[in-house]
Amino acid sequence: MQIGVIMGGISQEREISLLTGTEIMKNLNRDKYEVIPLSINTRFQLIDMVKSLQFVFIALHGNFGEDGIVQSILETLGISYSGSGVLSSALCMNKNISKKIFISENIMTPEWIMVKYEDEMNYNDAQILGYPLVVKPNSGGSSIATFIVNTKDELKESLIDVLKYDNEAMVEKYIKGDEITCCILNGKILPIISIKPKSEFFNYKNKYDQNGAEEKIIQLPQDIKEKVELIATKCWKIFNLEVYARVDMIIKAKEIYVLEINTLPGMTKNSLFPKSAAAFGLSYTELLDKIIQYSLEKDNK
Q: What pLDDT is attached to residue 199?
């Protein structure tokens, strides 16, 4: 089978996408697949590159990758692809909409307010949330342009930076607790990973540096484990996720807060999903086989 690996793209996460794509290509089973690299720099390259392929492995991150646009193009062309569909991808990419859905489904998430590019920030609202606050792009990932702020002046400065990357900024209450991530493969919860960054939070450098954070498989107390798995499964079903996804959470005093859902989790050599799969007993190559298998199966349902 011919498999095209789309990487690069036009978002701020291009560099990470190239790392993800390179690692995927390195680990795909060449006895099974003819692997074709597809590094894109513009939206217009995609159609010509993929139109003769049987399957596309999406290694893109950020806008025009995780937001459902690439998925809709591939569906229009009748080409199978890895991961969740158009609507699921779009909903999870938009943190504001995701959090509104969490609240409607009684899933706890940190309180937040939105600031649009053309609007002025109401700093009284921020005061009500209470410092420290997390400031980040509404549709970004990889912790790019993400800040923890402790004062009004820091908030002002961070909003200027964030709104260079996105036309909407999320100002979110900072929850100090234990950060974990739940990787899900075809609806199955894989071993839970605890994340303890070397700096104040799990930022871009922590995520992709070899020793940027302590990431390890953990055994939670049974009652907390059941609660975490229940919430992760609920997210999978509510957002109609498919094939694979990662749900990021914070545990504070036995309360579980969902931060966000990643429909195309990072797959670099330092990424969380391959680590969780390895603890489950799947090598990287076997994980890629499973993702391809489940992606093809979803098209035949």
A: 59
How far is it, in rounded angstroms, from Cα 236 to Cα 231? Answer: 9
| CATH hierarchy code of domain 112-173 | 3.30.1490.20
- The two tokens of residue 295 are 């992606």
3-state secondary structure of 106: coil
Residue 106: left if φ>0, alpha if ψ -120 to 50, beta else—which one? left
Amino acid at 15: E
pLDDT tens sequence across 17-67: 999 999 999 999 999 999 999 998 877 788 888 888 989 999 998 888 899
What topology is assigned to 2-83 in CATH? Rossmann fold (3.40.50)
Q: What are the residues facing 256 on neighbouring strands?
A: 251
Instruction: Give pTM, 2 decimals.
Output: 0.91
Which residue, 206, 209, 246, is CA-closest to 228? Answer: 246
Helix axes 95-104, 86-93, angle to 10 degrees: 100
Q: Where are the domains of the chain?
A: 2-83, 91-107+177-299, 112-173
**Is 115 within 8 Å of 159 (Cβ atoms)?**
yes
Conformation bin of residue 285: beta by default, left when phi > 0, alpha when psi is -120 to 50: alpha
pLDDT > 80? residue 81: yes
Find the distance separating the first CA and the last CA of the chain, reported in whole Å.
20
Query: What fold, for 91-107+177-299?
Result: D-amino Acid Aminotransferase; Chain A, domain 1 (3.30.470)
